[in-house]
């Protein structure tokens, strides 16, 4: 036998996703500020629900995640049957891609758009068309200029990772209004709960009456449950029904359903998490700017810091590592001159400020 099993065309051209680093050799408990997780951890209610779920982990989960579905629908004022649950919102993107893309179709997203959209699209033998983001922000006209008759899905993260930029409600409405009815607009609102900008709005109301909008949310960010993998999309009924045909039946675990449901009801934890970010994001931004670094405005729980070129960013990254701090190089997004830093606890933020102050002086 000379022929080895060959993956589908294009699979081996996909650059493997490199997640946030989680360890530093010789450092027992590094400060991990690389994946925009909630540095307060999960809330008390979610932890208690997770622990209580242990008595049921021998039982397959409810394939419809009914308890969580009803709770999420109630809290956001949505129709339960229009929700698609996934193993993180990443899985919702993958399911959308698998359901709507065939070879030669394309998705459109911003130049710095979240990588998860692209990976599974390429896995469907689709193309990825990137709209330029000269100001590190998805521009409506640039996105529309990429749309052609093979476009099936346009992805916008709002706010956006890794840049932290956001699109106003007006921009999202204009984008949707100009898209052909056959193209799905996915508005990824993973960081929605952190946004304080007055001209930002959730796209849930816009999606309510549309046949081609999917709004996604995650439990990995403000709810502090990244390790459990739970997210959902709010979709038109026909989209939800189509996706349900390929969705694996037990894609959200028993502890995932229980902890996520409890997290939704834990307003105190959400408030504390939001306040940590709204207090520290401006302080961290101001401090780093004071060292001569460019820090992009961010609507999320992280900031993108620009250095004088890729070498300087790599050196800063290494310096932070020597201080036990892990941040996120974003060369995979075409931003080798930048580092993304999650807003942490007070001690963590102070450690970042001290380390970058020292580094800036070198
Ligand atoms: C913009 C954006 N969307 C979605 C996700 C993924 O969320 P989940 O953990 O639900 O898959 C992330 C995670 O970093 C993100 O930054």
TrEMBL record:
One of its GO terms (molecular function) is histidinol-phosphate transaminase activity. It comes from the Bacteria. Residues 30-356 form the Aminotransferase class I/classII large domain. InterPro entries: Aminotransferase_I/II_large, HisP_aminotrans, HistidinolP_aminotransfase, PyrdxlP-dep_Trfase, PyrdxlP-dep_Trfase_major, PyrdxlP-dep_Trfase_small. NCBIfam families: hisC. The keyword Amino-acid biosynthesis applies. One of its GO terms (biological process) is L-histidine biosynthetic process. The keyword Transferase applies. The modification N6-(pyridoxal phosphate)lysine is found at residue 221. It is an enzyme of class 2 (transferase). Pathway: Amino-acid biosynthesis; L-histidine biosynthesis; L-histidine from 5-phospho-alpha-D-ribose 1-diphosphate: step 7/9. Homodimer. Its EC number is 2.6.1.9. This is Histidinol-phosphate aminotransferase. Belongs to the class-II pyridoxal-phosphate-dependent aminotransferase family. Histidinol-phosphate aminotransferase subfamily. Its cofactor is pyridoxal 5'-phosphate. Keywords: Amino-acid biosynthesis, Aminotransferase, Histidine biosynthesis, Pyridoxal phosphate, Transferase. It comes from Brevundimonas intermedia. It catalyses: L-histidinol phosphate + 2-oxoglutarate = 3-(imidazol-4-yl)-2-oxopropyl phosphate + L-glutamate.
């Amino acid at each position: 036998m000379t022929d080895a099993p060959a993956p589908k065309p294009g699979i081996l051209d996909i650059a493997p996703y490199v997640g946030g680093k989680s360890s530093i050799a010789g450092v027992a408990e590094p400060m991990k500020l690389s994946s925009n997780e909630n540095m307060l951890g999960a809330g008390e209610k979610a932890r208690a629900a997770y622990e209580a779920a242990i008595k049921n982990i021998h039982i397959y989960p409810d394939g419809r995640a009914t308890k969580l579905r009803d709770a999420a629908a109630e809290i956001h004022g949505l129709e339960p049957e229009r929700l698609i649950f996934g193993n993180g919102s990443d899985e919702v993107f993958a399911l959308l891609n698998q359901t709507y893309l065939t070879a030669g179709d394309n998705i459109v997203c911003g130049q710095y758009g979240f990588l998860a959209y692209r990976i599974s699209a390429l896995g469907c033998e689709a193309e990825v068309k990137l709209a330029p983001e000269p100001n590190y922000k998805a521009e409506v006209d640039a996105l529309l200029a990429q749309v052609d008759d093979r476009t099936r899905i346009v992805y916008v993260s709002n706010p956006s990772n890794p840049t932290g930029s956001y699109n106003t409600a007006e921009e999202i409405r204009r984008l949707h209004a100009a898209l052909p009815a056959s193209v799905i607009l996915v508005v990824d609102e993973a960081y929605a709960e952190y946004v304080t900008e007055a001209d930002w709005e959730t796209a849930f109301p816009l999606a309510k009456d549309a046949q081609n909008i999917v709004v996604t949310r995650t439990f990995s960010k403000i709810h502090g449950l990244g390790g459990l993998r739970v997210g959902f999309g709010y979709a038109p009924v026909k989209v939800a029904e189509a996706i349900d045909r390929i969705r694996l039946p037990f894609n959200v675990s028993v502890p995932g359903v229980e902890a996520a449901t409890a997290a939704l009801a834990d307003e105190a934890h959400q408030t504390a998490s939001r306040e940590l970010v709204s207090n520290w994001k401006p302080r961290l931004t101001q401090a780093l700017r004071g060292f001569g670094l460019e820090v992009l405005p961010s609507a999320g729980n992280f900031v993108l810091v620009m250095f004088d070129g890729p070498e300087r960013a790599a050196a800063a990254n290494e310096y932070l590592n020597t201080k036990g701090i892990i941040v996120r190089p974003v060369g995979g997004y075409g931003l080798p001159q930048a580092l993304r830093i999650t807003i942490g606890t007070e001690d963590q933020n102070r450690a970042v400020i001290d380390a970058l102050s020292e580094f800036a002086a070198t």
